[in-house]
Design goal:
The chain is an all-alpha fold. 33% of the residues lie in helices and 0% in strands. It is flat. The model has no long low-confidence stretch (mean pLDDT 77).
Length: 72
């Protein structure tokens, strides 16, 4: 069974962006979240140093991951 993940990815990303924009504070003022989507090609989970790779150094991605929420 072949699954075309591209057809699933685009609607999923749109849903996530729209769901994140629905945050409202009790004051009634709507504050939009900061969302940064980084898309890479031909990169695996273990290809960055914050995932445990000792050979490839990615200091900027490590700093971003340290200040962010990571979903594993």
């Amino acid at each position: 069974m072949n699954v075309n993940y591209t057809k699933l990815l685009v609607p999923g990303m749109i849903w996530l962006l729209l769901a994140g924009c629905q945050t409202q504070q009790s004051t009634g003022k709507q504050e939009l979240p900061n969302i940064l989507l980084i898309v890479t090609d031909d990169m695996g989970y273990g290809d960055v140093s914050n995932s445990g790779n000792p050979l490839i150094k990615t200091p900027h991605l490590d700093q971003l991951a340290a200040r962010s929420v990571r979903f594993k």
